[in-house]
Write a structure and sequence with these properties.
alpha/beta, 8-stranded mixed β-sheet, 7-stranded parallel β-sheet
């Protein structure tokens, strides 16, 4: 479907044409007509599928420019995402200067008699705005990156925001790349009588992304492997993800010594520093961004075609959010994971979720060669019925106690039993291995005789 087929105002269509956005994505085709008809929705779709426009375009199309009231409140989990959505509105503002929008992360004065039509902010800033201005008859309320809002612990603040909204005409929208049962239940608390619109595609499979495990002959030299990979590949723009800001700082120092065009991003940087970073990236000043997962959710970094995971995130879905920074809007992207034996189980889990890996070895000539890598599979030790019965007995005898620390004592007793059984299991395995070796030696000696 083409945007020109929808009942959008001319200045919106003109701007979309300027941006070369002609056709609706799958999720946009499913949701935009419903939002235009004033339906409240929970929208779940892959990263990079255009969820922001699912709510933003209908909001822009229905703004009442004769009103001095706030008509839409959009809540996002990070300042970067707030800035990004605000910049998208500013794109359309160039074609219609009647739009009044504000990003709450900027310290701008707000005239109570001439409120902005659209307000965008993080949960705390949105709450402060509602505390101060007592908005009535808000028309649109949006929770974007809803899964991240709850993962980061904003539940109580979102509760307070909803209590402060006084509107009989409210259209509620939540967007998320993932929608599990727990998140669905939380959202239904706020978004009653809403339709859930799911993109039929699995969040785990993006045909535009290739997944690669990178390793070298020295499996423990992760920094060396990363440096070799950077010297081999030639992305338009790449993002290197680390789990902690200390890891970011450490790698940044090393990569800067290699004369790599690189910049770093983590939560300790100031707003002005972050703004400058994204401006420099858009001006093609850098080749790589090294960042924590602050950059993995929702950010649309134009031209990013490579994502490198120096360390793997604890949660499998965060890996998908990382890879979603590349291969956006139908373009092709690649994900590279610097191999670490600690991640074998996680790689196997992601394989079961339909991710197909290329195992690439960096050889002595610094070439990437397809070569299968044997992953270790950590088997979960199953206890026999007698051990399980012993554990249940401990829980039964101690669960009625209410003395301080009784739960901790139960846990310690259970761990002691489990540890004992694990040692017995390992001892049996070692004895069996020694026995097998003796049998092989005996057979070999008989053959020699």
């Amino acid at each position: 479907m083409y945007f020109s087929e929808l009942n959008f105002k001319k200045w919106i269509i003109d701007k979309l044409n300027e941006l070369k956005i002609i056709r609706l994505t799958e999720i946009q085709e499913k949701t935009i007509p419903l939002v235009l008809k004033n339906n409240s929705l929970i929208i779940s779709s892959q990263t990079g599928s255009g969820k922001t426009y699912c709510y933003l375009l209908p909001i822009l199309n229905k703004l009442d420019f004769s009103s001095n009231k706030t008509q839409a409140l959009i809540v996002l989990p990070t300042k970067e995402l707030v800035r990004q959505v605000n910049s998208k509105i500013n794109d359309f503002k160039k074609n219609n200067n009647q739009i009044k929008n504000i990003s709450l992360i900027e310290d701008k004065q707000i005239n109570i008699n001439n409120l902005p039509h659209i307000v965008i902010g993080t949960p705390l800033k949105a709450k402060e705005f509602l505390d101060k201005y007592k908005i009535k008859d808000l028309r649109y309320f949006v929770l974007d990156e809803a899964d991240m809002l709850f993962d980061l612990g904003f539940t109580n603040i979102i509760d307070e925001i909803f209590k402060k909204i006084d509107s009989q005409i409210l259209i509620k929208i939540a967007c998320s790349a993932t929608l599990h049962e727990s998140l669905s239940n939380k959202l239904r608390k706020y978004l009653k009588n809403t339709k859930i619109i799911l993109n039929s595609k699995s969040i785990w499979v993006n045909p535009n992304i290739t997944h690669n495990i990178i390793y070298s002959t020295n499996l423990d030299d992760h920094q060396g492997t990363l440096l070799k990979l950077i010297n081999i590949i030639n992305p338009f723009f790449g993002i290197i993800f680390c789990n902690t800001k200390n890891e970011v700082d450490e790698l940044y120092k090393i990569l800067k010594t290699q004369n790599t065009d690189i910049v770093k991003l983590h939560k300790d940087l100031s707003i002005n520093e972050r703004k400058k970073i994204f401006k420099d990236i858009s001006n093609l000043k850098y080749k790589y961004l090294i960042a924590t997962d602050l950059a993995s959710r929702g950010l649309d970094i134009k031209g990013a075609d490579v994502v490198i995971s120096y360390s793997m995130p604890a949660d499998d879905t965060w890996y998908i959010h990382r890879t979603g920074r590349a291969g956006r809007n139908g373009t092709i992207g690649a994900s590279y994971v610097i191999y670490n034996q600690k991640n074998d189980n996680q790689i196997n889990r992601l394989t079961k979720k339909s991710i197909k890996w290329n195992f690439l070895l960096i050889d002595k000539q610094n070439r990437l060669i397809n070569k299968n890598l044997k992953l270790r599979v950590k088997t979960k030790l199953k206890f026999d019925s007698a051990t399980n019965a012993e554990i249940k007995k401990i829980i039964r005898l101690n669960s009625k106690k209410v003395k301080p620390g009784y739960k901790k004592k139960i846990k310690q007793q259970i761990n002691k039993i489990k540890q004992k059984k694990k040692h017995e299991y390992i001892e049996r395995q070692v004895k069996q291995r020694l026995l097998n070796n003796n049998i092989r030696k005996t057979k070999h000696n008989k053959i020699r005789k």
